[in-house]
């Protein structure tokens, strides 16, 4: 088992993610092999497998790493789910989806499904964390918070994804105007 805090391990994982990103832009997920990733990252296949089980595990980490990199400090440190936090999450989710579809040649429904589910899960975890910190609803039952977070993240993600698919890319202000009241009213805020 590799030590995840070792600087060499961190550097190797970064090389693998960068190689993966380059290959996603050129070949598409389905065409990428472990050999391709190892060659591009200047490592051997055994080193790849010491860090990742397969390319699907790499895709999952790649998606999560990119998502966390995009979250602003204001959202991470938010103590309650405010209108401003809502707007930031709508915009962040939309921008993440746009960036990911631009980076990845989404020529495979399987990769699109995997990535979409991972983004929804990460968004839900972010919202749940914020609600738990504020707990302005005094929801002592964690199941209620999970359900509220799931519904909120689904609304934000669904709207952001639909916005990209209908081609309204330059009107994120309108996206926020549409989604914000829906989410905030749904939360009773």
TrEMBL record:
Q: Which UniProt keywords apply?
A: DNA-binding, Repressor
Listed GO MF terms: DNA binding
This chain's protein is named TetR/AcrR family transcriptional regulator
- Pfam families this protein is in? TetR_N
The answer to keyword DNA damage applying to this record is no
According to the UniProt record, which residues make up the DNA-binding region?
Answer: 33-52
Q: PROSITE patterns of this UniProt entry?
A: HTH_TETR_1, HTH_TETR_2
Superkingdom: Bacteria
